[in-house]
Amino acid sequence: MSSKWKDFRLYVITGVNYHPGRSLMTVMEQTLQGGADIIQLRAKDMTKREVLAQAYALRKLTRHYDVPLIINDHIDIALAVDADGVHLGQDDLPLAEARRILGADRIIGISTHSIEQALRAERDGADYIGVGPVFPTGTKPGRQAVTTSYVQEAAQRIRIPFVAIGGITTSNVNEVLAAGAARICAVSAIVGSDDPAHECRSFLQAIHASDQSKPGQVDLKQIRVNGRAEQTSARHVTELVQQLGLEGKRIVVELNGQILARDAWGEAEIENGATLEMVHFVGGG
Predict the structure, then answer these.
(1) Per-residue pLDDT of the chain (285 residues; tens, 9 = 90+)
(2) In the chain, which end has fewer C-beta atoms inside a 10 angstrom radius, N or C?
(3) Is 214 a catalytic residue?
(4) Residue 42: closest CA among 14, 67, 17
(5) Per annotation, catalytic residue among 59, 140, 183, 201
(6) Of residues 9, 42, 59, 201, which has the active-site annotation?
(7) Does 4 carry a binding-site annotation?
(8) Considering the entire predicted model, what is its pTM?
């Protein structure tokens, strides 16, 4: 697993109860088309056989889009389908045991609800942490919201990637970003919407706008796209495609005179002065 996964900005978790009448694969592919960087399979109320079947299907889908797949709780299922990692709660298998089973190359994320838990997860070797629930949420009934004060504390003290989660919508995401979050996770706001791809783009637009409003934190590069001068904070071609609203489109990308295969976009870094040509095919070709 390339360290590029650490550049993720939008993390989407499954929630089949939020989209009755629509298949899991349809909804999750729409999130990927909208720019989701990581997908987590979370299925608390299903049998293990049902979770395994969904995991195999999502593994195929996420590989097609070159996006990491994380399995909530089930380490054995993560191994069975060759997922990229697991996400564990405070009451799940200890991180050290999970690492022993999964090895050094798989991603392990930990849910945290206080700075003490966050610091412990970082010290014990977590790859990333969840910070939340920021707001009350139906996915964590009875769990007291940690508010944006914990987000602010995590931004100041935690060195590994953290993702803000819990009740976050496009209406309140700017509050979370202003508190210091750079990565956002959503469930119902995305998978429960009529247009998951549009919701993902809206979240990403808010995240990128927040990047550009924080002096010293974003290096805006001068590039040329189809002959036009542009400024961008995109680190690689995949992120630029998302910023330009072209995710999910049939396009060919040429970077500095070299045509890139789609599966190489995430590795193709955009440097200051880069020149890109993007050809968008519509209709039959």
Answers:
(1) 666 788 899 999 999 999 999 999 999 999 999 999 999 999 988 999 999 999 999 999 999 999 999 999 999 999 999 999 999 999 999 999 999 999 999 999 999 999 999 999 999 999 999 999 999 876 666 678 999 999 999 999 998 999 999 999 999 999 999 999 999 999 999 999 999 999 999 999 999 999 877 665 545 677 888 887 777 778 889 888 887 777 778 899 999 999 999 989 988 999 888 999 999 776 554
(2) C
(3) no
(4) 14
(5) 140
(6) 42
(7) no
(8) 0.75
Q: 243: domain CATH number?
A: 3.10.20.30
Report yes or no: 186 and 172 within 8 Å, Cβ to Cβ.
no
Alpha helices in the chain (DSSP H): 24-33, 48-64, 75-80, 95-102, 115-124, 147-157, 173-178, 188-191, 196-212, 237-243
194 a known binding residue? no
Identify the domain containing residue 124 by its residue range.
Answer: 3-212
Structural domain count of the chain: 2
Q: Is 111 annotated as a binding residue?
A: yes
